[in-house]
């Protein structure tokens, strides 16, 4: 059973989250997330710290200790219900169907084994292959992620590699068992700009060549645009806007997305011109205000926003926004853009 | 826009007038000895290897570069947190560490804000006590120091009534960084070093802190040295930019010129590496392969030559000097310097 996948439904979306809620103690960090990732698609989850983006990602692998976390809702990967998996099935599922790369590869690797050994171990855990066969595959993976002199590098310990190379090795490890879905949690945040772009391009290439489905969690809009077909913006445990990269970046309809786009330093054309900021700070998740969680910081907030949770509206096919005042928001964004263009450079 | 902001020099500490650089550094060198393994051979990390630059009064000088390029070591050397191996530092015309300007007097005028807002505050002191600490040590009476701390807290946007008595762990990252900025300003410095001061913050908070830095600079007539790996932030805040590579300056000049028409191929590659924000126009190729090299064994000649697309044989032999390519814009690249022997160098006549 080398390459057979235990797919219940081959046509099911790669990842399907329905009203997903994740809570720790009294705090609900993810508060009803609906997302669908089609096969072969790359999606970026963006948001600030505490928005629940990493928790959503980790919930897909059920990485949180059972006793201290509560996950409810639907969580399906390739048609399989992840929440119903037994311990044993979960162990087979991790790495085989879905695998993950982390922000800090130095912490994710075991420091006392060589990188090659960790990759062959993963392969042999999931598949019945000989040690030499596993090593051959590890070598092929290293070539795939373009690690220079791969043969020698397989025998390196993690600390002997540079940051960019470690992240490549991490990707090789994640791909070791030919998963269908790759989850990437801020994979380039700790890297230099010149290395970051290489890793982002590598992810895009893997998506294209291997038909991989990718979820990329990042706080950097730029990184999201480089990799993702679709972007979902999270705020306080909710997805506030989701759509194609095009729709979200060029035609945003949620005031928070607009705020994120505006607060970027490259948005300010003139030096000394002040950056537009989002006032205030994210809400305390233990005491959520009623209504829209973004209302206290929103430039468009009306009475209704503070009392009633906005429904998710479909603005265009595939472009969904949770806001009462999407039209006003989009108009404000367009007005801002044309005002900016009118300013002589 | 390239000229430094001319604040009328009412500062009684100003000696040389607005034309004299606030800080000028020449030949700054710092090497760290390392030993590879037990009983291994001794090697030297050339963290900062001959850096010259000037910071003009009232300007913001941005320093960019990848990890290992020496930008943080430079900041620590400027602050005197580590001792330099050699090199000269003149602060408003006086040699730092000389009898006329001892380190203690210099440090009162130069303050620093670090990247890790939590690690740089004493966890057992309230933020008010942390801010008042510096002035107290420097002879400001206790009550006055506390008053100053409260005034600064209000100035950085933290209401003293709510925040003065808090401990660092009771604040968010953005609030802590505001406290660090207030503490840096408590001694009324003239120069503030910001070492990746906004890098750990969320984008929306980063924008708030950048705005605050702009306001404070105008209000207190400050000069900033702003170190960051984020070119967009540096472009936004800096008047001039200095690009470092492997312990040396590769390019320095007005930020509009350096970041719009980079003269050094490394600056070009850095700019090209910034993710695009246009889904229709995504980056197709990475200009640089591999990681920044190790500063233990920098390559001979131009340090960038192994990764440079313009590299010619001469680049492995001659270390390029930091020469002007335009007024106030200097670059250390042989391909831009007439008579350097590089095949793409401009003709000597054109430059003369």
Radius of gyration of chain A: 21 Å
CATH superfamily of the largest domain in chain B: P-loop containing nucleotide triphosphate hydrolases
Tally of discrete structural domains of chain A:
2
Largest interface (C-beta under 8 Å): A-B, 45 and 48 residues
* Outline type of chain A: globular
Would you identify the CATH architecture of the largest domain in chain B?
3-Layer(aba) Sandwich
Q: What pattern of helices and strands is seen along the backbone of chain B?
A: EEEHEEHEHHHHEHEHEEHHEEH
Helix content of chain A: 25-40%
Under the CATH scheme, the architecture of the largest domain in chain A is 3-Layer(aba) Sandwich
Main β-sheet, spatial strand arrangement of chain B = 6-7-8-3-9-10-12-11
Regions of chain B with pLDDT < 50 over 5+ consecutive residues?
A: 5-9
**What is the ordering of alpha helices and beta strands of chain A?**
EEEHEEHEHHHHHEHEHEEHHHEEH
| Strand coverage percent of chain A | 15-25%
Please provide a written account of the structure.
- The complex is a heterodimer of chains A (345) and B (352).
- Chain A is of the alpha/beta class and 345 residues long.
- Chain A has two domains: 237 residues, P-loop containing nucleotide triphosphate hydrolases (Rossmann fold); 80 residues, no CATH class.
- Chain A has 13 helices and twelve strands.
- Chain B is α/β, with parallel strands linked by helices and 352 residues long.
- The longest helix of chain B is centred in the middle third of the chain and has 18 residues.
- The chains are: A alpha/beta (345), B alpha/beta (352).
- At the A-B interface, helix 7, helix 8, helix 9 and helix 10 of A face helix 7, helix 8 and helix 10 of B.
- Chain A: InterPro entries: AAA+_ATPase, ABC_Ni/Peptide_Import, ABC_transporter-like_ATP-bd, ABC_transporter-like_CS, Oligopep_ABC_C, P-loop_NTPase.
Question: How would you sum up this structure in a few lines?
Answer:
The complex is a heterodimer of chains A (345) and B (352). Helix content of chain A is 35%, strand content 21%.
